[in-house]
Amino acid sequence: MSSVLNLLRIKGSTIMFLVMGSLVGALFFKAVAKDPGYILLAHGKHTFETSLLVGVLAILLLIFVVYWLVVILRRLMSLQLFRRNSTKLTTDGLIALAQGDWANAEKLLAKAARGNDVPLINYLTAAQAAHEQGKSDERDNYLRLAHETTKGADMAIGLTKARLQYQSGHWEECLATLMKLSREPKSPSYPYVVKMLSKVYLELEDWESLRELLPAMKKHKVVSVEEFGRLAQASYEGKLKRAVRGETDEEKRSHLKDAWHQIPKKFHIEPSLVRIYADALVSVNAGGDAERVITDLLRKNWDDGLVQVYGRITGGDVEKQFLWCENWLKERPNNPMLLLTMGRLSLQRKDWDAARGYFEASLRSRKSAQAYGELGRLLSHLGEHQASNEHFQSGLALIAERLPDLPMPD
């Protein structure tokens, strides 16, 4: 079919030329058949003689060779010019991409791809330009063209696709793409796949998968030591938060403690991790365990956040807690969080005057909504409603957004 179409495309003048050439050739061969004749070439003492037919055929062959040499040279020059133009279009497209001119970048890069022997870069960058414009169909088409025109570039194309999906916030799609790429652990790009997986798991809050990825992250050194520690801690924090499951407090405590023991020992001294664990213990009525965990850490590493949790523990040995706080107060006499915690422990001991004194001391050291709230609640139960309301208002003023000064009814 294609050959027929090509014949139909031949111009009328070309057909006429072929017909005329055939007629002339027939007449020539007829004349030669009657009288073959000859051609004699002489130069100095050298002569060359051949029949007319052979001479004409030699001349025609020479013309044919020269013609095709000219055609080939013209095509080579045209191809060189086309490639040069393609290179310029690619350069201009990359400049437009760097400048954020997405529409122009897409146009130039896609056009240049057609004249590029290796169009992979053009299609990948055109996909990025289309992505920045929100043109997902065009983006996917460029990625498809990149796959079709370049063999052995599946990893590069897949990573580009994953990056664009990540930038769009399509975490599940990005994860699916990365999981396919992760099946090639020997690929030079595998460490980057691992790094991207860690970012996606973090966005999805898939702490268990992130925790399982930690050995590969450490092996390939895909992040700094500090970042690795942060991600590891985030995975363990998420693990603790999800560990509180079960129908009874006993089941929840069991799951929570199992999760805690699965976390490497070196993370047992991280205040933020211990806070989450202690809070979870309190929520499942394991105040005694929370007390011991916090006390052990505060004796070595002070943390105001842990002290705050310490004051919310119920079901522990409150007298023992209070004694520890008195010792710590000697070293930190004006610590507002410690004073607030001692006020709360005093409430558990039903020492109302001591509680009031500690709350007031905490406010003198630093005003906080929690201290105002605790003091206001205590004063309300003591019957000092006017003072209670004033403290509640002061606490609200600290946490509420500042309102504009507008007229109010009398």
The overall pLDDT average reads: 84
User: What share of residues is helical?
Assistant: over 70%
Low-confidence runs: 1-10
- SS content category: mainly alpha
CA-to-CA gap between the ends? 94 Å
Strand percentage, roughly? Answer: under 5%
Q: What summary fits the major beta sheet? A: 2 strands, antiparallel
Strand adjacency order, main sheet: 1-2
Short description:
With 410 residues, the protein is mostly helical.
Explain what this protein looks like in three dimensions:
Among the domains are: 93 residues; 63 residues, Serine Threonine Protein Phosphatase 5, Tetratricopeptide repeat. The chain contains 20 helices and two strands. It has a two-stranded antiparallel ribbon with strand order 1-2. Strand 1 and strand 2 form a beta hairpin.
